[in-house]
Amino acid sequence: MDNSKKRSPWQIANATVLLLHLAFPVWLVAWMYTPAISSILLPVMMICGLLPGVCSKLVKKFQKGKGLLIASRVLAVFAIAAFYTPLVVLRSAKEVQLLYPLKRFLYTYGVYGDGRSGIYEALLPEQLPDACTGYRFRTQGSLIAQDYHASSYLTFYTDAATLDTYAAYYGSMDCERIQYAPAGETDEEPFPHLSWFCGQMKLDQTLPEHSEQMTLYWFDSYYPKGVLLDYDTGLVAVLT
Fold first, then answer.
1. Alpha-carbon distance 97 to 34, whole Å?
2. Which of 38, 61, 133, 209 is the most buried (most CB within 10 A)?
3. Are 187 and 193 in contact (CB under 8 A)?
């Protein structure tokens, strides 16, 4: 048997990865889901994926440089992992508080990029407060579909001091500030926008019935956004 024609484990792995990418175009989903950052990471992954082949030929030709070949393989693996990390993180880690800064970054900049990230970066807290329980952060990237919006849904419970800070911050923004009173104690339309907001956030629909100190900061646009602060329960809910 001609041993020179045997494929190395790396060549087999490389061919397998290539075939998987052709048969299951997950790379296309990742590229669509986080277009801003994946437009950079995709060509980097492709270039790094070709490097081991180039380095392998150079090693065979000059009979040296195995360290460079190993480094190129490690770089290729990291490039592939980096390309898929935004997709994996945005689709998972909903209740992992340590990953909040990363999820926030990948959502604001990975999906929207520098040019469109402003409102999303402004609405989502830069970091979670020290008093934070019941944390959940669900994020959606971009997909080509009718009436689809790359949204984020952040909920957690905190203390009154933090709520005061948030109330001052969101109250200073250009938005509609809606103060909710207990049922039957207001002449306004009962809970405007709240039903839609709670439905999108998957919050308890009975919340208005037992909450007496609740404020919704409503940002009306093509896709409405809002922040709900409830002093009765300590709830902070941010929809973008």
1. 21
2. 38
3. no
Tokens of 108: 């604001």
Cα separation, 156 vs 235, in Å, equals: 6
The answer, yes or no, to whether residue 1 has pLDDT greater than 50, is no
Task: Give the chain's end-to-end CA distance (angstroms, integer).
Answer: 63
Mean pLDDT calculated for residue range 77-100: 92
pTM of the complete model: 0.80
CA distance 225 to 120: 9
DSSP state of 8: P
pLDDT in tens, 118-149: 889 999 999 999 999 999 999 988 877 667 78
pLDDT bin (cut points 50, 70, 90) of residue 194 is: confident
CA gap 208, 195 in Å, rounded:
9
Q: Report residue 196 CA to chain centroid gap.
A: 22
Give the three-state DSSP class for 225: strand
What 3-state class would DSSP assign to 71? Answer: helix
Assigned token pair, 180: 């909710």
Assign residue 233 a region (left: φ > 0; alpha: ψ between -120 and 50; beta: otherwise): alpha
- Contact yes or no for 198/207 (Cβ under 8 A): yes
Q: What is the pLDDT of residue 51?
A: 86
Q: Token digits for 11?
A: 């060549």
